[in-house]
Amino acid sequence: MSPLPIIVLSLFSNPWADALVSFDEGIGGSPGYNIPEVALGEPSRFTGEDVWPCVVSPFNSPWLTDEIVSIGAGGSLVVSFDEPVQDDSTNPWGVDLLIFGNTGCIDNSYPNGIVGGVFSDDGGLIEVSQDGKQWIAITAELANGLWPTRGYLDSQPYDAVEGSVPSNFTLPVDPRLTLDDVMNLDNVALMNLYGSSGGGTPIDIAETGLPEISFVRISVDANSKLSPEIDGLADVTAQIIGDVNMNGTVDVTDLLALIESFGPLAIGGPLADFNGDLYVDVQDLLSLIGNWS
Known about the structure:
The chain is an alpha+beta fold. Helices cover 12% and strands 23% of the residues. It has helices at 6-11, 179-182, 187-194, 252-260, 282-290, and strands at residues 19-24, 46-47, 54-55, 69-70, 76-86, 97-101, 104-107, 115-119, 125-129, 136-138, 201-203, 212-219, 229-235, 263-264, 279-280. The longest helix has 9 residues, at 252-260. The two termini are 37 Å apart.
């Protein structure tokens, strides 16, 4: 049988974790949250069906047993990707992998959505591997951390119906953003900093020295009092040079956004810096024009 054409193979590819390799639920995890297969596929956009239906938002994280898996002390979860996750410098901010958990923002003005801190940021050691045998730890981030998942761009924090404009689960939040930056912000201001991102913990595999990885292991220390919950993992989509709004084309919309962003790259601002110097200038402008669609 002749091999499938590349165009056909692409129909079967996706950015999510594809297979469960192993799962040890450990000790002290959340009872009933022991279905590891929920970490495969796209993260949750809507939660609480038939109980308290609500969009997944930074103020309302996924919480059903068929959405997140809990890893207790001494436990671990290992998943694999059919298409390797590349260490790609053209990814936004160099982020290669996103891990989605059930971290959420404490609402200091329910139901208005005012950030008062975070809950369920329960950690979890991240390790990556090319072959599932040799593992290298990620030291810069823990698995269940910032940023909380956002399912839709056109929803309020506690909407009981699904939105119509999905967020981008393969686009990271600006990794320069910190919790201190968003404290006491309302939902509108917070979402402006997210842009069209769906959140997730950002992982740059460059620190490992590996060109690509196919396996991710999330584990918990045997003495830990915390049990991270995992909802999904995603391979970050690379940015086309000049494509400020990440819609796949370089056009006048991108040009105008770049011009409006001239100067130091604002946190959460448009992705208009193409040479990684965190400054939008004539060099970025020329790069955009040179890659006009």
